[in-house]
Amino acid sequence: MKCRRCSGSAVVEVRRHNAAFCKDCFPAVFTEQVRRAIRRFDMLEPEDRVLIAVSGGKDSLALWDVLLGLGYDTTGLYLGLGIGEYSDRSHDTTAAFAGSRGADLVVVDLAEEYGFDIPTAGRKGSRSTCAVCGLSKRYVFNKAAVDGGYDVVATGHNLDDEAATLLGNTLRWKTEYIARQSPVLPATDGMVKKVKPLHRLSELETAAYAFLRGIDYVVDECPLVAGNTQLRYKEAMNSIEAASPGTKAQFFLGYLDRGMPLFERTSRPTVRPCDACRQPTTGRYCAFCRAQAQVLGRRIEEPGPDDGLETARAMSEEVMPAEMYGAAGA
Protein backbone atom coordinates (compact mmCIF):
# COMPACT_ATOMS: atom_id res chain seq x y z
CA MET A 1 0.00 0.00 0.00
CA LYS A 2 1.10 3.53 -0.75
CA CYS A 3 0.58 6.57 1.43
CA ARG A 4 -2.14 8.83 0.08
CA ARG A 5 -0.18 11.97 0.98
CA CYS A 6 3.40 11.18 -0.03
CA SER A 7 3.22 7.85 -1.92
CA GLY A 8 5.64 6.31 0.55
CA SER A 9 5.18 2.92 2.18
CA ALA A 10 1.94 2.94 4.19
CA VAL A 11 1.68 1.48 7.67
CA VAL A 12 -1.89 2.48 8.63
CA GLU A 13 -4.98 1.66 6.58
CA VAL A 14 -8.18 3.66 7.15
CA ARG A 15 -10.78 1.56 5.37
CA ARG A 16 -13.66 4.00 5.79
CA HIS A 17 -11.68 6.53 3.76
CA ASN A 18 -10.27 3.91 1.38
CA ALA A 19 -6.87 5.35 2.21
CA ALA A 20 -3.57 4.45 3.82
CA PHE A 21 -0.77 6.55 5.32
CA CYS A 22 2.90 6.22 6.20
CA LYS A 23 4.35 6.54 9.70
CA ASP A 24 5.15 10.22 9.20
CA CYS A 25 1.94 11.32 7.50
CA PHE A 26 -0.61 9.56 9.69
CA PRO A 27 0.07 11.60 12.87
CA ALA A 28 -0.30 14.77 10.77
CA VAL A 29 -3.61 13.55 9.33
CA PHE A 30 -4.81 12.59 12.82
CA THR A 31 -3.88 16.01 14.20
CA GLU A 32 -5.65 17.75 11.34
CA GLN A 33 -8.85 15.83 12.14
CA VAL A 34 -8.66 17.10 15.72
CA ARG A 35 -7.98 20.63 14.51
CA ARG A 36 -11.03 20.51 12.23
CA ALA A 37 -13.26 19.23 15.04
CA ILE A 38 -12.10 22.04 17.32
CA ARG A 39 -12.68 24.65 14.64
CA ARG A 40 -16.07 23.40 13.45
CA PHE A 41 -17.63 23.24 16.91
CA ASP A 42 -15.76 26.19 18.46
CA MET A 43 -14.41 23.89 21.14
CA LEU A 44 -11.36 25.83 22.25
CA GLU A 45 -9.96 29.33 22.13
CA PRO A 46 -6.19 29.98 22.12
CA GLU A 47 -6.34 31.54 25.58
CA ASP A 48 -8.41 28.77 27.21
CA ARG A 49 -7.11 26.83 30.18
CA VAL A 50 -7.96 23.23 29.31
CA LEU A 51 -8.33 20.41 31.83
CA ILE A 52 -7.94 17.03 30.10
CA ALA A 53 -9.44 13.97 31.79
CA VAL A 54 -6.70 11.34 31.45
CA SER A 55 -6.79 7.68 32.37
CA GLY A 56 -3.55 6.22 31.05
CA GLY A 57 -5.41 4.82 28.03
CA LYS A 58 -4.67 5.52 24.39
CA ASP A 59 -7.50 7.96 23.73
CA SER A 60 -6.93 10.44 26.53
CA LEU A 61 -3.13 10.39 26.16
CA ALA A 62 -3.37 10.78 22.38
CA LEU A 63 -5.67 13.76 22.88
CA TRP A 64 -3.29 15.33 25.40
CA ASP A 65 -0.38 14.79 23.01
CA VAL A 66 -2.22 16.47 20.13
CA LEU A 67 -3.40 19.46 22.17
CA LEU A 68 0.12 19.99 23.52
CA GLY A 69 1.40 19.91 19.95
CA LEU A 70 -1.21 22.46 18.91
CA GLY A 71 -0.03 24.81 21.64
CA TYR A 72 -3.00 24.75 24.00
CA ASP A 73 -2.57 25.46 27.70
CA THR A 74 -3.40 22.02 29.06
CA THR A 75 -3.35 20.28 32.41
CA GLY A 76 -4.13 16.60 32.91
CA LEU A 77 -6.58 15.40 35.54
CA TYR A 78 -6.22 11.83 36.76
CA LEU A 79 -8.86 10.36 39.08
CA GLY A 80 -7.74 7.42 41.21
CA LEU A 81 -10.64 5.01 41.53
CA GLY A 82 -8.97 2.46 43.80
CA ILE A 83 -9.20 -0.52 41.43
CA GLY A 84 -6.08 -2.33 42.68
CA GLU A 85 -3.12 -2.91 40.36
CA TYR A 86 -5.10 -1.58 37.41
CA SER A 87 -5.36 1.85 39.03
CA ASP A 88 -1.71 1.78 40.11
CA ARG A 89 -0.56 1.02 36.57
CA SER A 90 -2.88 3.64 35.08
CA HIS A 91 -1.60 6.33 37.43
CA ASP A 92 2.04 5.46 36.79
CA THR A 93 1.51 5.53 33.03
CA THR A 94 -0.24 8.89 33.16
CA ALA A 95 2.41 10.40 35.43
CA ALA A 96 5.17 9.13 33.15
CA PHE A 97 3.51 10.71 30.10
CA ALA A 98 3.16 14.06 31.88
CA GLY A 99 6.73 13.93 33.11
CA SER A 100 8.16 13.13 29.68
CA ARG A 101 6.49 16.23 28.23
CA GLY A 102 6.91 18.60 31.13
CA ALA A 103 3.12 18.83 31.43
CA ASP A 104 1.13 19.52 34.59
CA LEU A 105 -0.91 16.71 36.11
CA VAL A 106 -3.53 17.04 38.84
CA VAL A 107 -4.27 13.81 40.74
CA VAL A 108 -7.47 13.30 42.75
CA ASP A 109 -7.84 10.13 44.81
CA LEU A 110 -11.50 9.22 45.23
CA ALA A 111 -10.98 7.39 48.52
CA GLU A 112 -8.87 10.16 50.07
CA GLU A 113 -11.11 13.01 48.93
CA TYR A 114 -14.56 11.41 49.23
CA GLY A 115 -14.15 8.40 51.51
CA PHE A 116 -14.87 5.54 49.11
CA ASP A 117 -13.43 3.77 46.10
CA ILE A 118 -15.26 2.26 43.16
CA PRO A 119 -15.08 -1.43 44.20
CA THR A 120 -16.54 -0.49 47.61
CA ALA A 121 -19.26 1.61 46.02
CA GLY A 122 -20.18 -1.29 43.74
CA ARG A 123 -20.64 -3.58 46.74
CA LYS A 124 -22.41 -1.21 49.12
CA GLY A 125 -24.38 1.16 46.89
CA SER A 126 -27.59 0.68 44.96
CA ARG A 127 -25.97 1.69 41.66
CA SER A 128 -23.94 -0.66 39.49
CA THR A 129 -20.16 -0.32 39.58
CA CYS A 130 -20.06 1.31 36.14
CA ALA A 131 -22.88 3.69 37.06
CA VAL A 132 -21.26 5.03 40.21
CA CYS A 133 -17.91 5.17 38.41
CA GLY A 134 -19.31 7.31 35.62
CA LEU A 135 -21.19 9.52 38.07
CA SER A 136 -18.06 10.01 40.19
CA LYS A 137 -15.96 10.95 37.16
CA ARG A 138 -18.43 13.50 35.86
CA TYR A 139 -18.77 15.03 39.31
CA VAL A 140 -15.05 15.23 40.03
CA PHE A 141 -14.13 16.49 36.54
CA ASN A 142 -16.58 19.37 36.81
CA LYS A 143 -15.70 20.21 40.41
CA ALA A 144 -11.96 20.16 39.71
CA ALA A 145 -12.44 22.43 36.71
CA VAL A 146 -14.58 24.89 38.67
CA ASP A 147 -12.24 24.91 41.67
CA GLY A 148 -9.15 25.26 39.47
CA GLY A 149 -10.54 28.02 37.29
CA TYR A 150 -10.34 26.05 34.05
CA ASP A 151 -12.34 27.14 31.03
CA VAL A 152 -12.89 23.74 29.39
CA VAL A 153 -12.87 20.04 30.28
CA ALA A 154 -11.72 17.84 27.37
CA THR A 155 -12.33 14.09 27.25
CA GLY A 156 -11.01 11.39 24.93
CA HIS A 157 -14.32 10.01 23.67
CA ASN A 158 -13.74 8.66 20.17
CA LEU A 159 -15.99 7.80 17.23
CA ASP A 160 -16.55 4.25 18.51
CA ASP A 161 -17.71 5.55 21.89
CA GLU A 162 -20.07 8.08 20.36
CA ALA A 163 -21.58 5.70 17.80
CA ALA A 164 -22.18 3.00 20.43
CA THR A 165 -23.76 5.51 22.80
CA LEU A 166 -26.04 6.86 20.09
CA LEU A 167 -27.04 3.32 19.11
CA GLY A 168 -27.96 2.40 22.67
CA ASN A 169 -30.09 5.47 23.23
CA THR A 170 -31.76 5.22 19.85
CA LEU A 171 -32.74 1.61 20.53
CA ARG A 172 -34.44 2.82 23.71
CA TRP A 173 -35.50 6.19 22.26
CA LYS A 174 -33.98 8.02 25.22
CA THR A 175 -34.63 11.37 23.59
CA GLU A 176 -33.54 13.40 26.63
CA TYR A 177 -30.11 11.74 26.45
CA ILE A 178 -29.87 11.93 22.66
CA ALA A 179 -30.54 15.66 22.90
CA ARG A 180 -27.41 16.08 25.05
CA GLN A 181 -25.09 13.99 22.88
CA SER A 182 -22.91 16.61 21.28
CA PRO A 183 -19.17 17.19 20.76
CA VAL A 184 -19.62 20.31 22.90
CA LEU A 185 -21.66 20.94 26.03
CA PRO A 186 -21.58 24.68 26.74
CA ALA A 187 -20.88 26.09 30.16
CA THR A 188 -24.06 26.74 32.11
CA ASP A 189 -25.46 26.74 35.65
CA GLY A 190 -22.21 25.84 37.43
CA MET A 191 -21.06 23.38 34.77
CA VAL A 192 -17.81 23.98 32.90
CA LYS A 193 -17.79 23.65 29.11
CA LYS A 194 -17.01 20.08 28.00
CA VAL A 195 -15.60 19.04 24.63
CA LYS A 196 -14.76 15.82 22.74
CA PRO A 197 -12.12 16.65 20.11
CA LEU A 198 -11.63 12.98 19.07
CA HIS A 199 -15.24 12.35 18.08
CA ARG A 200 -14.32 12.02 14.37
CA LEU A 201 -11.54 9.46 14.98
CA SER A 202 -11.96 5.73 15.54
CA GLU A 203 -10.48 3.65 18.32
CA LEU A 204 -8.12 1.97 15.86
CA GLU A 205 -6.94 5.37 14.64
CA THR A 206 -6.17 6.60 18.16
CA ALA A 207 -4.28 3.35 18.85
CA ALA A 208 -2.27 3.82 15.64
CA TYR A 209 -1.49 7.42 16.55
CA ALA A 210 -0.33 6.45 20.05
CA PHE A 211 1.88 3.69 18.67
CA LEU A 212 3.48 5.87 16.00
CA ARG A 213 4.06 8.66 18.51
CA GLY A 214 5.69 6.25 20.96
CA ILE A 215 3.06 6.81 23.64
CA ASP A 216 3.07 4.12 26.30
CA TYR A 217 -0.51 3.45 27.39
CA VAL A 218 -2.51 0.94 29.41
CA VAL A 219 -3.90 -1.68 27.03
CA ASP A 220 -5.99 -3.68 29.50
CA GLU A 221 -9.63 -2.84 30.06
CA CYS A 222 -10.92 -2.10 33.53
CA PRO A 223 -11.37 -5.46 35.35
CA LEU A 224 -14.80 -4.31 36.58
CA VAL A 225 -16.24 -3.58 33.15
CA ALA A 226 -17.32 -7.14 32.27
CA GLY A 227 -20.96 -7.26 31.18
CA ASN A 228 -21.17 -3.52 30.50
CA THR A 229 -23.96 -2.89 27.99
CA GLN A 230 -21.91 -0.24 26.22
CA LEU A 231 -19.36 -2.89 25.24
CA ARG A 232 -22.08 -4.98 23.59
CA TYR A 233 -23.17 -1.98 21.53
CA LYS A 234 -19.55 -1.46 20.51
CA GLU A 235 -19.30 -5.09 19.44
CA ALA A 236 -22.46 -4.75 17.37
CA MET A 237 -21.15 -1.61 15.67
CA ASN A 238 -17.80 -3.31 15.03
CA SER A 239 -19.54 -6.19 13.28
CA ILE A 240 -21.42 -3.82 11.00
CA GLU A 241 -18.29 -1.75 10.39
CA ALA A 242 -16.30 -4.83 9.38
CA ALA A 243 -18.85 -5.64 6.69
CA SER A 244 -19.46 -2.03 5.66
CA PRO A 245 -16.55 0.31 6.45
CA GLY A 246 -17.67 3.81 7.25
CA THR A 247 -20.92 2.86 8.98
CA LYS A 248 -19.91 4.31 12.34
CA ALA A 249 -18.96 7.63 10.80
CA GLN A 250 -22.10 7.76 8.67
CA PHE A 251 -24.26 6.99 11.70
CA PHE A 252 -22.77 9.41 14.22
CA LEU A 253 -21.55 12.21 11.95
CA GLY A 254 -24.86 12.00 10.09
CA TYR A 255 -26.62 12.49 13.41
CA LEU A 256 -24.52 15.60 14.07
CA ASP A 257 -25.41 17.05 10.67
CA ARG A 258 -29.06 16.10 10.41
CA GLY A 259 -30.32 14.62 13.66
CA MET A 260 -28.87 16.86 16.34
CA PRO A 261 -30.66 20.01 15.12
CA LEU A 262 -33.98 18.18 15.50
CA PHE A 263 -33.28 17.38 19.14
CA GLU A 264 -32.05 20.83 20.13
CA ARG A 265 -35.63 21.81 20.94
CA THR A 266 -35.79 19.19 23.71
CA SER A 267 -36.20 21.01 27.01
CA ARG A 268 -33.37 20.93 29.54
CA PRO A 269 -34.01 20.55 33.27
CA THR A 270 -33.54 23.57 35.53
CA VAL A 271 -30.65 23.09 37.93
CA ARG A 272 -29.81 24.53 41.33
CA PRO A 273 -26.91 24.19 43.80
CA CYS A 274 -26.88 20.96 45.82
CA ASP A 275 -27.61 21.69 49.49
CA ALA A 276 -24.64 19.55 50.53
CA CYS A 277 -21.85 20.36 48.05
CA ARG A 278 -23.17 23.30 45.96
CA GLN A 279 -22.58 21.46 42.69
CA PRO A 280 -25.44 21.70 40.14
CA THR A 281 -28.41 19.36 40.43
CA THR A 282 -32.13 19.37 39.72
CA GLY A 283 -33.16 18.34 43.24
CA ARG A 284 -32.20 19.31 46.77
CA TYR A 285 -29.25 16.92 46.91
CA CYS A 286 -27.16 15.85 43.93
CA ALA A 287 -26.81 12.24 42.84
CA PHE A 288 -23.17 12.09 43.88
CA CYS A 289 -23.85 13.24 47.44
CA ARG A 290 -26.70 10.74 47.78
CA ALA A 291 -24.56 7.91 46.39
CA GLN A 292 -21.68 8.88 48.69
CA ALA A 293 -23.96 8.96 51.72
CA GLN A 294 -25.36 5.54 50.90
CA VAL A 295 -21.92 3.96 50.48
CA LEU A 296 -20.59 5.54 53.69
CA GLY A 297 -23.75 4.76 55.68
CA ARG A 298 -24.52 8.39 56.33
CA ARG A 299 -28.00 9.85 56.60
CA ILE A 300 -29.20 12.20 53.93
CA GLU A 301 -32.72 13.40 53.27
CA GLU A 302 -34.69 11.19 50.95
CA PRO A 303 -35.06 12.58 47.39
CA GLY A 304 -38.30 14.31 46.59
CA PRO A 305 -40.55 13.80 43.54
CA ASP A 306 -38.59 16.33 41.46
CA ASP A 307 -35.19 14.70 42.01
CA GLY A 308 -35.45 12.14 39.24
CA LEU A 309 -33.26 14.07 36.80
CA GLU A 310 -30.46 14.47 39.33
CA THR A 311 -26.82 15.29 38.72
CA ALA A 312 -26.18 12.13 36.72
CA ARG A 313 -28.44 13.56 34.00
CA ALA A 314 -27.94 17.27 34.52
CA MET A 315 -24.15 16.90 34.30
CA SER A 316 -24.04 13.91 31.97
CA GLU A 317 -21.95 13.99 28.81
CA GLU A 318 -22.99 10.49 27.96
CA VAL A 319 -26.20 8.79 27.19
CA MET A 320 -27.26 6.01 29.54
CA PRO A 321 -25.20 7.13 32.54
CA ALA A 322 -26.12 3.93 34.36
CA GLU A 323 -24.33 1.87 31.74
CA MET A 324 -21.63 4.08 30.23
CA TYR A 325 -18.14 3.83 31.64
CA GLY A 326 -16.29 7.10 31.97
CA ALA A 327 -13.43 8.55 29.97
CA ALA A 328 -10.72 8.88 32.53
CA GLY A 329 -9.41 7.64 35.81
CA ALA A 330 -8.74 4.18 37.09
What's the domain count?
1
Using the coordinates above, name the CATH class.
Alpha Beta
Q: How many beta-strand segments?
A: 10
Strand content: 5-15%
Q: What is the CATH superfamily classification? A: HUPs
Helix content: 40-55%
Q: Structural class, from secondary structure content?
A: alpha/beta
Largest sheet: 6 strands, mixed
Named CATH architecture: 3-Layer(aba) Sandwich
Question: Poorly predicted ranges (pLDDT <50, ≥5 residues)?
Answer: 303-327
H/I helix tally: 13
Envelope shape: globular
* Rg from Cα: 19 Å
Mean pLDDT across residues? 89
Structure description:
The chain has 330 residues and is α/β, with parallel strands linked by helices. The chain contains 13 helices and 10 strands. It has a 6-stranded mixed sheet with strand order 5-4-3-6-8-7, with helices on both faces. Helix 2 packs across helix 9 (203-212), helix 5 (118-124) crosses helix 6 (129-148) and helix 7 (159-172) packs across helix 10 (229-243). It is globular and about 65 Å long. The two termini are 38 Å apart.
